[in-house]
Design a protein that fits this description.
Number of helices of chain B: 10
Oligomer: heterodimer
Shape of chain B: globular
Order of helices and strands of chain B: HHEEEHHEHHHHHEEH
Largest interface: A-B, 33 and 36 residues
Distance between the termini of chain B: 76 Å
CATH architecture of chain B: 3-Layer(aba) Sandwich
Radius of gyration of chain A: 15 Å
Strand order of the largest sheet of chain A: 1-2
Largest sheet of chain A: 2 strands, antiparallel
CATH topology of chain B: Glutaredoxin
CATH superfamily of chain B: Glutaredoxin
Number of helices of chain A: 5
Helix content of chain B: 40-55%
CATH class of chain B: Alpha Beta
Number of domains of chain B: 1
Strand content of chain A: under 5%
Strand order of the largest sheet of chain B: 1-2-4-3-5-6
Largest sheet of chain B: 6 strands, mixed
Radius of gyration of chain B: 22 Å
Structural class of chain B: alpha+beta
Chain lengths: 120, 238
């Protein structure tokens, strides 16, 4: 679901199309100075992150679980930062982004749980 | 907890924190590095000659551009701060103006919105004030050519004054008095109401039809001028 949201947001950027948005702030957020990281749209990075997480799930090795936890935890921290930016800096909420952020935090929790079980 | 597990958790935590700090730092540096305001360095703004050439000789009345007898009316909902609107104006509009408006086939109607923030409202009132002198499309075009980063305070009075000086025939003193006039406020309110009725999801957003009363949503497939031209040709054939 998270990958789907990130893919949709990436598509709207690529196609210069309007975002279906219930909160009214999606375009403001998507066009803000914080919508890119080192020149790369955050939505694209979201798709890449979900792909990496999927790849780590495919392996049962301990290193894969650890790598998944690192990426997921870092992504969750960055997602929390992006939510703070939306509220405190941009003063607009992108519902799609917040949904993706929530999914990222959930994945981080699951990734830590998986690591714990792998190490047991 | 086993020593090995403890070491793995510590390593995972440290790596995650390091990665998150790097991401946040890159984001903050990128945001800071983005240009904020449009600098006004001369009496007129860059692009004034191109704007004048684009609209020269085409009739304007209030928010409309082109012949009132044009068989197709194209309505554009746009926010002066919207980067995609600026992109449309730079890439697609010149072809539409040259091949369809100048030739009397299409009439353009501007529906100005100010939903992106305070700079939008300031710029929109200025643009609509130019409409009181029948030079709205010139003023909008020159502002898009010199658009700053949204909601950074780029719409300064210096910028607006220079934008007005960049359009031949605009009375600057009248612009100052008209930007807060009831006519300008009414036009902005009418556009916002029309956008509400049309459920405009974002800008730029278009409607087209045989008359203003019969316009229907027109989803431009891309900002490619050829694609837009093909859609207008289809409308003209109906």
């Amino acid at each position: 679901m998270g990958a789907g949201i990130a893919a949709y947001l990436s598509y709207t950027r690529l196609a210069h199309t309007q975002i279906l948005c219930t909160s009214g702030g999606c375009e403001t957020v998507q066009r803000s100075r914080y919508s890119k990281l080192a020149g790369i749209p955050v939505a694209y990075l979201g798709v890449a992150t979900y792909a990496v997480l999927l790849a780590t799930v495919a392996s049962v090795r301990e290193t894969a679980a650890a790598a998944g936890a690192v990426v997921a935890l870092a992504a969750a921290c960055f997602a929390a930062y992006l939510v703070v930016v939306q509220i405190a800096v941009i003063h607009a909420i992108c519902a799609w982004c917040v949904a993706s952020d929530a999914i990222t935090v959930t994945i981080a929790a699951l990734a830590v749980l998986r690591l714990t079980r792998t190490l047991e | 907890m086993r020593v090995k597990s403890r070491k793995v958790y510590a390593a995972v935590g440290a790596a995650a924190v390091a990665m998150a700090v790097a991401l946040v730092a890159a984001s903050l540096l990128g945001a800071r590095g983005t240009s904020h305001a449009t600098k006004v360095t001369g009496p007129t703004l860059p692009g004034a000659a191109e704007t004048a050439a684009l609209f020269r000789g085409i009739p304007q009345h209030g928010t409309t551009l082109g012949s009132p007898r044009a068989p197709v009316t194209l309505v554009e909902f746009a926010d002066p701060q919207c980067p995609y609107c600026a992109q449309f104006t730079a890439q697609t509009l010149p072809v539409i103006v040259r091949d369809y408006v100048r030739t009397g086939k299409v009439r353009l109607v501007f529906r100005g919105l100010a939903f992106l923030g305070p700079d939008s409202g300031t710029a929109l009132r200025w643009v609509l004030a130019a409409g009181q002198q029948n030079r709205l499309w010139n003023e909008l075009d020159i502002l898009y050519r010199n658009q700053g980063t949204e909601n950074t305070g780029w719409v300064t009075q210096d910028l607006l004054d220079a934008a007005a000086r960049s359009v031949k025939g605009l009375d600057l003193a009248r612009m100052h008095s008209d930007q807060g006039s009831s006519a300008v406020r009414a036009e902005a309110a009418a556009a916002a109401a029309a956008a509400g009725r049309a459920h405009v999801p974002g800008t730029p957003y278009f409607e087209a039809g045989r008359s203003l009363a019969s316009v229907r949503p027109l989803a431009l497939k891309s900002f490619d001028p050829k694609a837009a031209a093909a859609q207008l040709d289809t409308l003209l054939k109906r």
